[in-house]
Amino acid sequence: MAVALAIAATIVAIDLSHELVSRVSNYRSRIASLNKRVDRLKRQAVADEKRLADAREEIKERKLMQSRDRMKAILVAPDRRTIKLAAPSPGELATATVSISEKMGGAVLSAHSLPAPPEGQVYDAWWMLKNAPPAKAAEFRSGIDGSANEYLDPPPQGPGPLSLSITMEPSEGGIAPSGSVKLQGKVPGGIGDERSGGAKKH
Question: Is there a contact between 106 and 154 (Cβ–Cβ < 8 Å)?
């Protein structure tokens, strides 16, 4: 009787061992399959990230080309007018000219001797409006040679702008100027009159 029980127990143990081995082998196979799938998804994710980065770079290049084309068009526009900007503090060498075209709906800033802003700060261009808050026209950094050539958004609809100011601001940006004025200049009369629907003189 004892021998029979021992034999039965051995058979059961062998069956359990075979079942355990089979389950372990199955689990290992599934884990290996999942690892391959994870690796495949990782490779796909890397490829997708590269395609996304390439697409962003292409969009950036297209926007840059569009901006350059728009700037060139403004600079040769028949209705182009020029605004002179100067540093408000005596002794500062920074100067700039702004070419604005009502027809092209924008302006081009060309600055010289404008020191590169410190880390964490940028230059902001502002249209100073009558009876309205300042309107940001651009955010930019000058080069190490102090030059900057930037496209400026046109002033908003309404009475023509009174002046244009360049201030130094935190890089997070803001909706109104808060830093020191580095360049400023008055806008010639007449700019913005057609856009605002002002009456024509006879």
Answer: yes
